[in-house]
């Protein structure tokens, strides 16, 4: 009788252990697959833009900045759904620009104030937060709006631009896969960085 009680107690424990191990193995396999996919996508671009892959293959360092592909919802989902490009800028201060319809996703803080752009082209499409309202009026102009719009069209996705501590980060909420899409994003992101430098 005691042996049956022992068996009834031990079987669920052992089952739980094996289930946990199986789940961990599955997660590792999925992560490995995503990593390989990201490496393959970035390798193709790297040959065109003199880029070098990071040791883990998750990012590509180029003369203009660093591109990263991300599965932002992992481990719930291993779909690569976000592309980022970060480059240095001489722009002092902080800036965040998102599409007008995404305004609720960005919160004003003590250091970032909502800007009402004087340029109607910017105000119609984008929601702008800046650390300095006077400087922000210079930054949020039609040339910057045009470069962001060009980037969005080239990859058919929404964009977010953030400038913090002299680093400009462009985020596209789409996991770009085709070499021509990645190259189009890279070229358009570099153009945005060039536009930002005009504000210095």
Question: Any overview of this molecule?
Answer:
The N and C termini lie far apart (about 85 Å). The radius of gyration is 23 Å and the shape is globular. It is α+β, with helices and mostly antiparallel strands and about 200 residues long. It has five helices and nine strands. The protein has one domain (about 1-200).
Order of helices and strands: HEEEEEEHEHHEEH
State the major sheet. Answer: 9 strands, antiparallel
Structure summary, number of beta strands: 9
Q: How many individual helices?
A: 5
Helix content, binned percent: 40-55%
Kindly estimate the percentage of residues that lie in beta strands according to DSSP. Answer: 15-25%
Uncertain spans: none
What number is the mean pLDDT? Answer: 86
Shape category: globular
How many separate domains make up the residues?
1
Distance between termini?
83 Å
Strand line-up of the largest beta sheet: 1-2-3-4-9-8-5-7-6
Rg result: 23 Å
Summarize the structure.
The chain is α+β, with helices and mostly antiparallel strands.
